[in-house]
Amino acid sequence: MDPYDRYELIVNGRTVKTPIAIASMAGIVDSDYVLAREEYVGMAFIGGYSIDEPTINASVLMEEEGRSEFISTDPAADLKAEIEKLAGTDIISGVNLRGSSSESFVLIAEELGDGVIYEIDAHCRQPAMINAGSGEYYLHNPERLAEVVTALKETGVTVSVKIRAGVAADDSALARILWKAGADILHIDLMDFGVSKIRQIRNSCPLFLIANNSVNTFDRMKDLLAHGADMVSLARHSDADTLKALDNAIAAYADETGWYNSPKQLCRGGDLRSLTFCCMPVKQCPLMPALQKIGMSPKDYHDFKVKSVENTPMASGSSTCFGSLAWCCKSSTPCMFRDISIKKEGITLADYMRYKRRLSEKIMDRIFNEERREDIAG
Ligand SMILES: Cc1cc2nc3c(=O)[nH]c(=O)nc-3n(C[C@H](O)[C@H](O)[C@H](O)COP(=O)(O)O)c2cc1C
Ligand code: SF4
Ligand code: SF4
C-alpha cells in the first residue's frame, strides 16, 4: 500500500513512510547510523550536537567524564555534511541540537534551511549541559524554551522539542506553552510514566507527538499509539532487527484496521480522539466529565458530530443503537448491527475506521484550533 494511504502522515512537507523514528544518542546517532537502518524508519534525529561555545564546552567536559559526544569546532558545516548524506533517502531527517540561546539556534537554521526538523534538546540532564543553559535547563525555564521555539519558527522551519516527562513542573502546561509558542512536534521521553502520560499530553494540545522510551515490542508501540502518539521513537533499541519487526507489524495492523493509531474507547481509557467512537450523550458515563473538561455542552457535541458526518456514509445506520454510525463503537468491538450498516453503505470495516479518523480530526480541531484562532484574534 502507498505509505500516505496507509498512515496519512505528513511532516515537514513530506510523507512519513512509517511511524517509527530513530531518537538521538550523542556520539552515536549520525547519518551513517541512520543509513544502516534506512529501510525501516520514517524519521531520524541525528545528534545531539552542541552548537555554541557554552554547550560545546559542556560537551568537552562530558567527554572527559567518559560520555560519547559529537564535538565540532564548526557545527554548521559538520551538520550540513551530515544532512547531505541523508538527502535522496525517504527518511525525514531532524537534527537534535543543544544551544544556550535563541540566536545560536537561529544561526544554525539560517545555515541549514528548512529541509530538516530542528529539535531542541531540552532532555539532557548532564550537569555540565544544564549549567551551560541547555538541555534540562529549559524544562525548568519554560519561558526561555518558548523563546527559542518562537525564534526558530520565525525562520520558517519545523520545530520539535525533546523533553523528559516528569521534570517540568507540569507536563500538560509545558505542552500548551510550547504549542502556543509555535512548536510543531513534541518528542517525549516518557521515562516510567507509561501510557497515561502520553494521554495526558494528547488531551492538552494538538501537537504532533512522538512517544519515546523502551519501545522494543509491538505491544508497547501499539499501546502508545492508542493513547495519543502519532509516532514512536527508539534510541537504545534502534537495531535493524527491532525496527524491522515493528515496521512489519504496524504496516499489517494499519492495513487490517484502517487507522494505525486509533484510540481506545473513552470508557476504556482512550484520549479525547475517542469521542469519535462515543455514544449519543444520553447517559451518565465518562463522556459527560470529558465534555465538561473541554467546555463542550452535550448538545454542542451532539450537533457537531451530526453536522460533521453529513453527506458521508457515517450519517447512515438506521439499525444501529442511535440511528447513525456517527455514534458507533470502534471496529475492535464486535457488533452485528454496525457491520450490517457498513455493508449496506458498500464500505469495509477499515473504511469505516478511516471515516472515524476524519471525524476525530474534526473533533480535535474544534477542541484546540478554535482556541488558537481565538488567541490570534486576541
Ligand atoms: C547514549 C545516549 C545518548 C543520548 N543522547 C541524547 C541526545 O543527545 N539528545 C537527546 O535528546 N536525547 C539523547 N538521549 C536520549 C534518547 O534519545 C532517548 O530519549 C532515551 O534513551 C530513552 O529512549 P530509549 O528507551 O528508546 O533508549 C541519549 C540516550 C543515550 C542512551
Ligand atoms: S459515551 Fe459510550 S463509548 Fe463513550 S464513554 Fe460513554 S459508554 Fe463509553
Ligand atoms: S450499534 Fe453496535 S457499534 Fe453501534 S453503538 Fe450500538 S453497540 Fe456500538
Task: Explain what the structure shows.
By secondary structure, the chain is of the alpha/beta class. The protein folds into 2 domains: 3-257, Aldolase class I (TIM Barrel); 266-377, no CATH class. It is 45% helix and 13% strand. The chain is built from 16 helices and 10 strands. Strands 3-4-5-6-7-8-9-10 form an 8-stranded parallel beta barrel, surrounded by 5 helices. The radius of gyration is 22 Å and the shape is globular. The relative contact order is 0.10. The model has no long low-confidence stretch (mean pLDDT 97). The structure holds flavin mononucleotide (FMN) and iron/sulfur cluster (2 copies).
Write the layout of secondary structure elements.
Elements: H1 3-7, E1 10-11, E2 14-15, E3 20-22, H2 31-35, E4 43-50, H3 53-64, H4 75-86, E5 92-98, H5 102-112, E6 117-121, H6 127-131, H7 137-140, H8 142-153, E7 158-164, H9 171-181, E8 185-189, H10 195-202, E9 208-212, H11 218-226, E10 231-234, H12 240-257, H13 287-294, H14 298-308, H15 336-344, H16 349-377
Parallel strand pairs: 3-4, 3-10, 4-5, 5-6, 6-7, 7-8, 8-9, 9-10
Antiparallel strand pairs: 1-2
Helix pairs in contact: 4-5, 5-8, 8-9
Flavin mononucleotide binds next to strand 4.
